[in-house]
């Protein structure tokens, strides 16, 4: 079977998902989705650390634990569904690429809840971690890249000038139409890089 990759750019409670393959080193978009990583898409559930901040310490831990378990389950189901969809198109899902924030490792929960900046970081990290968990549970290799380094890294590895890379990313979305925002472009790019890495190691 031909090889495919998924790319993710996660947000609080949802993620941009793009599936692609490489033919003659030229990417082809196979999937484009915006799945939710919470069952109830409201602020309370999309921002679990913000919600936990307003609760008593014992209850706060429960809020985070439930949000993490739910996000992991939904991420797994999302990737499993994409894996099946790709198989019906004749593709094997070889890897998942995920964009990371550039922050430092998070401290323990009390320290997080004492800092509004860390609360924002932790909300995003919870959903990114869920996607990594889902990938691993599906038996798929993972590839990560820091978002702030993505364009420079891609330009170097793809041997493209930044403006040429930007045009390639825009053109990728033409066959499937909207939405093809920065979310989808970045998700496609990290999937593209993940397949290149797979090809280099096999």
Topology:
Layout: E1 2-11, E2 14-23, E3 26-33, H1 43-46, H2 48-53, H3 57-88, E4 91-100, H4 109-113, H5 116-137, E5 141-146, H6 147-158, H7 162-172, H8 182-201
Helix pairs in contact: 3-5, 6-8
Q: How would you characterize this protein structure?
A:
This protein is of the alpha/beta class and 202 residues long. Helix content is 55%, strand content 22%. A five-stranded mixed sheet has the order 3-2-1-4-5. Helix 3 packs parallel to helix 5 and helix 6 (147-158) packs across helix 8 (182-201).
Poorly predicted runs of 5 or more residues: none
Element pattern in H and E: EEEHHHEHHEHHH
Biggest sheet architecture: 5 strands, mixed
What would you call the shape? globular
Strand % is: 15-25%
User: Termini, distance in Å?
Assistant: 15 Å
- The count of strands amounts to 5
Q: Give the count of helical stretches.
A: 8
- Protein structure class: alpha/beta
Write a concise keyword list for the protein shown above.
single chain, 202 residues
In short:
This protein is globular. The protein has 202 residues and is an alpha/beta fold.
């Amino acid at each position: 079977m031909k090889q495919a990759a998924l790319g993710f750019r996660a947000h609080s409670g949802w993620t941009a998902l793009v599936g692609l393959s490489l033919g003659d080193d030229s990417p082809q978009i196979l999937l484009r989705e915006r799945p939710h990583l919470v069952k109830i898409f409201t602020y309370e559930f999309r921002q679990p650390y913000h919600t936990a901040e307003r609760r008593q310490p014992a209850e706060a831990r429960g809020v985070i634990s439930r949000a993490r378990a739910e996000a992991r389950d939904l991420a797994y189901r999302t990737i499993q569904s994409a894996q099946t969809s790709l198989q019906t198109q004749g593709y094997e899902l070889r890897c998942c690429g995920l964009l990371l924030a550039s922050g430092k490792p998070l401290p323990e929960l009390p320290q997080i809840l004492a800092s509004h900046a860390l609360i924002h970081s932790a909300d995003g990290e919870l959903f990114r971690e869920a996607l990594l968990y889902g990938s691993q549970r599906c038996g798929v290799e993972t590839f990560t890249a820091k978002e702030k380094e993505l364009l420079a890294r891609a330009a170097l590895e793809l041997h493209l000038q930044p403006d040429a890379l930007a045009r390639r990313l825009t053109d990728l979305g033409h066959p499937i139409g909207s939405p093809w925002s920065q979310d989808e472009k970045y998700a496609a790019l990290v999937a593209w890089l993940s397949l290149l890495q797979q090809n280099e190691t096999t």
